[in-house]
Specification:
This protein has 281 residues and is mainly alpha-helical. It has a domain of 108 residues: Serine Threonine Protein Phosphatase 5, Tetratricopeptide repeat, CATH 1.25.40. 72% of the residues lie in helices and 0% in strands. It is built from 13 helices and no strands.
């Protein structure tokens, strides 16, 4: 009786080993070609690999095989969006973006199209790290995020897209501020003004605007341009009076015998007039 149970157990273990060996063939061994499996079997093996290994790119390759072998099936559509996700998890951003774009091109009305656009945007956004890097990726992320927000405003990803758009926008302003501060510290005041002006004119909704206005006060005072410095102070006082940047700007103007008020005929005066009409912010 014990022998029978032992033999049955060995047979069960052998069957399990054979099953696992067959499954391993889905990874591309020569013994079991992928063509021998259904789309669902390959998909589920890719899904399992994604969940149980630390190599999401391997899972992505299996999802790609579903698309290759069964191109017009429902499983191919599901595998394509999972391929984009798996590549993104593996930080293979170019491949993730390509898969996401294919999904959008092939299935623009599908319920997962919004998620594909979100992944496409993330493929740019997640590469934005230090403000010292080239800003091309930031611009591309902004463009892709804008498409997500405008094309799928009611999707569950739109809110996250808006948040990331604001952060990316702030990132661009940070780059301008970094360069502007660099010029200011080295006494290149005209060059510094150009950078801070970009923030005030093009990135006025970011958190960097109050500092940009304060730095303009510093730069213009160093250039001996009192009207511009005072006008920058007036804008600070009108919109950012509760910030430390306004208090510092006010003190700096007073120390130079000036007050925050709109004066002269310059680009900051034009900004001030727009602001008074409610058109600036």
């Amino acid at each position: 009786m014990g022998y029978g149970k032992s033999r049955a157990g060995l047979m069960g273990a052998f069957a399990l080993l054979m099953f696992l060996a067959a499954c391993s063939g889905l990874g591309g061994t020569k013994d079991v070609p992928l063509e021998n499996y259904t789309a669902e079997e390959i998909y589920k093996q890719a899904e399992a690999k994604l969940e149980t290994t630390r190599k999401p790119k391997d899972a992505a390759l299996l999802f790609a095989e579903v698309e290759r072998l069964y191109p017009y099936s429902e499983w191919a559509k599901r595998a394509l969006i999972m391929q984009a996700y798996a590549y993104h998890q593996g930080k293979a951003y170019d491949e993730s973006r390509a898969a996401a774009q294919r999904f959008i091109d092939f299935y623009p009305a599908d319920e997962d199209a919004a998620y594909a656009q979100y992944l496409l945007a993330l493929s740019y956004y997640d590469q934005i790290d230090l403000v010292g890097r080239d800003q091309g990726l930031t611009f591309q992320a902004l463009q892709a995020l804008r498409t997500l927000i405008e094309r799928y405003p009611d999707s569950e990803y739109a809110r996250s897209g808006i948040l990331k758009f604001d952060l990316a926008f702030n990132h661009l302003a940070s780059k301008e501020m970094e360069i502007g501060r660099y010029y200011l510290r080295r006494g290149h005041y005209a060059a510094a003004v150009n950078r801070f002006r970009v923030v005030v004119q093009d990135f006025q909704t970011t958190t960097l605007t109050p500092e940009a206005l304060y730095r303009l006060i510093e730069a213009y005072l160093s250039l001996g341009l009192a009207d511009e410095a005072q006008t920058a102070g007036a804008i600070l006082g009108h919109n950012f009076q509760s910030t430390q940047w306004y208090q510092d700007g006010f003190n700096l103007l007073i120390a130079n015998g000036l007050a925050p008020e709109a004066r002269g005929d310059n680009w900051l005066r034009a900004v001030y007039r727009q602001m008074i009409k409610g058109e600036w912010l």
